[in-house]
Model the fold of this input.
Amino acid sequence: MNYTSFTFADIFAGIGGARLGFEQAGGFCVFSCETEPEARAVYEDNFGEIPAGDARCLDLENLPDFDVLVADFPHSLSQVWGEDGLFSAVEAILEKKRPAAFLLENGKNVFSHRGGQTLAEMKGRLEALGYTVYTKVLNAWDYGVPQKRERLVTVGFSEPILFAFPEAVPERQRKGLADILEPEGTIKRSYYVSPEVRERKMEKMLERFKREPERPYVTNENVSGMVTPHRYACSLRAGASANYLLVNNERRMTERELFRLQGFPDTYRMPSSFVEVKNLTGNSSAVPMVRAVAERMMAAVELYHGGTVGLERGRAKAALDRFLRRKGQEAWRVIQAAEILHEKRLHPELSLERLETYKKESRQWRDAMAKRILGEGYQPPAAGQDSLFYKTALPPEILRVLGEENCRTGGAVEAYIYRRLFRKDRWLEEFLFPWLSREETADPAALLAGLGEPGMEDEARALRECMVQALWFTLEEVLAGKDGQRSLEPEGGEESRREAETESLRRAVALLTGAPQGDEGFFTAGVLTQWYERMISGPCRETMAGPALRQLRLALKERFGARRKPWEALAGRGYETLRDGFWK
Done:
């Protein structure tokens, strides 16, 4: 098994929480199965594949080969144990396919079931198949999400590999409630409980705790009626009342917040039903916890097989990350580093330690690719031509290790460099370009959230400016009766197209979005979300939805429409499908 690029099967897949954890650790999923219809639909929407059905009915002869079996068992013990239980299906797969490793996740109740006999039986049956087995109860809270969720995790290897479960993440590095809660100004009123429920909850909480704790907090009412505030959520439960977790004793959690509690990225597509989201997230694995275990598993495999690139590779990657993160880093310098590694992969005899043998040629490789990526207007730098090779950048001894790793992984280091270079453009393509290419549109709130990632601050401000400008013209059109039919492809050239965008409008937009003051101004993301929600789907939709969407699309096209897709120049190199966990 290649411990930096491995395959796995996702059994009892649910909505893919375990899959995401293993993908983030460098794995590539080759097979999945799940029986629950709602989970299958969400899985297909996010991963582009329909899971197979019941794991007990699989055609094992035609199952693809894989390195790791991943199985997140349902909580109900009655489904897992017994002659025709799901554990027997896992045994059959392990016996037939003989993967190098497996990870099984169960509810914590297995640990104490029948006084520990069930767990002992499970380990014995796995060891009888020839696997070295480790078990431990892990808490998702220890791995970075604000949720106390304990699960029994079982790890096994087909070889006598020493393994230790990952340590807890330091508390200062964990996400708190404030990191996963949506801004209060954006929460719909339907999420808030009635005054009677709030008063009852507050009264029960204050009976014991005397005063309300500092916000934010989450309350959980247990079976005895005790209401307890915490800085974290208790374990999500499918089938529980929608009000069993309340934020500040006032509202239930939103769908996005429930996904965030399990460590899912905001790019994950959710079903529209709150009940469906509650049930699906309540049955899911916590992504960061699975990722931590998967990474530790691969590290154990690497150590067992005597990986030799470890320390040098780690130092080289750290140097590369510093190089890529450097403030104001020039694109041409990044392209030059990637193209050197590309040439090394094409010509393995090239010695990257001997700078004099490729220094001059690397400028030509760089300039040829830079013109394709950055356009014909690209000009080679007048000075600093060789600054890439300085000790503070990527000297030959670092390039040598990067080159070896790049050859070993079939180009993963090149792919890593170009993904970092084009990260902003990829975010723009995913969240913004759909508005420019078709009439139907996504939710403006989702657009704001999508461009709210770290490093996208300039683009997020530009987006807010577009939304304010569109709001301005929408109000002119609807309230003042002015002709708002600005064409997306206006005639008369650039001068005619810009006629309505006066200097006073630019100053007003800048003031409203906070550019001169260095803050968010009057129109924060939350305020804009409320405006557009009211115009597009609220009480003003009949008169304002059409103009608002049209004006917003036009403003976005004016600001962002000219941006190219620079990674198209890299077509044919296979970067889109290349996976390698270490360089991810």
